[in-house]
Amino acid sequence: MADTVGKTITCKAAIAWAAGEPLSVEDVEVAPPKAHEVRIEIYHTGVCHTDAYTLSGKDPEGAFPVILGHEGAGIVESVGEGVTNVKPGDHVVALYTPECGECKFCKSGKTNLCGKIRATQGKGVMPDGTSRFTARGKPILHFMGTSTFSQYTVVADISVVAVTPRAPTDRSCLLGCGITTGYGAATVTAKVEEGSNVAVFGAGCVGLSVIQGAVKNKAGKIIVVDVNDNKEKWGKKFGATDFVNPTKLPQGVSIQEKLIEMTDGGCDYTFDCTGNVGVMRAALEACHKGWGQSIVIGVAAAGQEISTRPFQLVTGRVWKGCAFGGIKGRSQLPSLVEDYLNGQLKVDEFITHRQSLAGINTAFEQMKDGECIRCVVDTRA
Ligand SMILES: NC(=O)C1=CN([C@@H]2O[C@H](COP(=O)(O)OP(=O)(O)OC[C@H]3O[C@@H](n4cnc5c(N)ncnc54)[C@H](OP(=O)(O)O)[C@@H]3O)[C@@H](O)[C@H]2O)C=CC1
Ligand SMILES: N[C@@H](CCC(=O)N[C@@H](CSC=O)C(=O)NCC(=O)O)C(=O)O
Ligand SMILES: [Zn+2]
Ligand SMILES: [Zn+2]
After folding, report:
1. Number of structural domains, the chain?
2. Is the peptide bond prior to 65 cis by the omega test (within 30 degrees of 0)?
3. Helix (H) or strand (E) holding 74
């Protein structure tokens, strides 16, 4: 048993004191887990565009000061009373989409959105309404129920899943968001069928993962749409068949017209992986009349809204969306980790950059340059 059990741990964390400011890596006190809580020593965390979105101040739920990060993996340090799903020493991935198995959502069989702790999670506190983090004598908020930009974090027991220790944490952390989101969007939410034509708008970590899922389901054409020409090679590396840069189309030709022409009437499935509401409209309108489905994955800024002519829906196109790809973390993530170990799921290929916790602001800068798919932060370096 670790000699930290039951005690407050002082460690380093990257604190976002205010929107739009760089993170500050400094000491934070992490209180022991209460009943049905788990304290995790985070080894590695990815940096997702949603972290940058919330830090920018565009997230309507964003509140500060906060410890961001939601793509983390590590080892359970200690557990609170009543925790049965994980134990100290387990290798785990934090889950920003929890799975209680008991609530109306979990029992519906129709969604992965668990409702049990969503209200407190959205307010940046643990289910009992308080925080486990303190810095400079002030309580610091949790983020997405995970707060992985810290050497130690505390999460609800329903927000963590044990995975095989054979998977290195610098890889398994990426299954905590980006890869699972895109892969699940294609295979679980859309259930792309063999031979179907797919367009993926935005070839970042999420979009490339949609491609990976579409390839798994034996899609026909997989068309990448991205404003950055360098994303053509990335898309092809993951199995895309075509690439279109929407800024380079002949004058008067819209991206939806181009995709409809390329697919004999429109795509069977399109995916927005940009968070741009104009792109979301184009993605919907590029769908085939009668059955095409467009999946919204990207997260848009506060105040942004989507629109299209209702006729687009009247004529059979379907607009839907998903969080975490529709994947149920506790039920389904362990097998994705096994798929990675068996060579059936690409993960290593997404890692373009690495940083220490002290270099986390550089990770945020690198994310903007278009050449970064994922930066993995080693929280102990
Ligand atoms: N629903 C969910 O559960 C989740 C949602 N997300 C969200 O998904 C989105 C994608 O995340 P991620 O892959 O990490 O982001 P990235 O920024 O890495 O990828 C987005 C890609 O879209 C490109 N792009 C930007 N504008 C356009 C445009 N107008 N048309 C076509 N392509 C465009 C970008 O190009 P460039 O590089 O030149 O900017 C980039 O290549 C984000 O909004 C993120 O917040 C993430 C995880 C989970
Ligand atoms: N808080 C925002 C919405 C942010 C958002 O949509 N988050 C996604 C995950 S994005 C991961 O990188 C999500 O899980 N949404 C479902 C949920 O219940 O939060 C806002 O208020 O608009
Ligand atoms: Zn994310
Ligand atoms: Zn639930």
Report:
1. 2
2. yes
3. strand 71-79
Quick one: 60 and 161 in the same domain? Answer: yes
177 catalytic? Reply is yes
- Joined together, the tokens standing for residue 306 give 């989507």
State the residue range of the domain holding 267.
182-322
Q: Is residue 334 domain-resident? A: no
274 lies in a domain? yes
Among 187, 230, 236, 245, residue whose Cα is nearest residue 208: 236
Reported ipTM: 0.98
Local confidence pLDDT in tens for the 381 residues of the chain: 779 999 999 999 999 999 999 999 999 999 999 999 999 999 999 999 999 999 999 999 999 999 999 999 999 999 999 999 999 999 999 999 999 999 999 999 999 999 999 999 999 999 999 999 999 999 999 999 999 999 999 999 999 999 999 999 999 999 999 999 999 999 999 999 999 999 999 999 999 999 999 999 999 999 999 999 999 999 999 999 999 999 999 999 999 999 999 999 999 999 999 999 999 999 999 999 999 999 999 999 999 999 999 999 999 999 999 999 999 999 999 999 999 999 999 999 999 999 999 999 999 999 988 889 999 999 998
Q: Is 276 in the pocket of ligand 1 (CB under 6 A)?
A: yes
Give domain status of residue 364, yes or no: yes
If asked whether residues 240 and 107 sit together in one domain, one would say no
Please give the Cα distance from 173 to 74 (Å, whole number): 8
Distance from the alpha carbon of residue 282 to the mean position of ligand 4, in angstroms: 34
CA of 210 relative to ligand 1 center, distance in Å? 12
Q: Which of 224, 274, 352 to mutate to test the pocket of ligand 1 (most atoms within 8 A of CB)?
A: 274
0.95 exceeded by pTM: yes
CB atoms within 5 A of ion ligand 3 belong to: 48, 50, 177
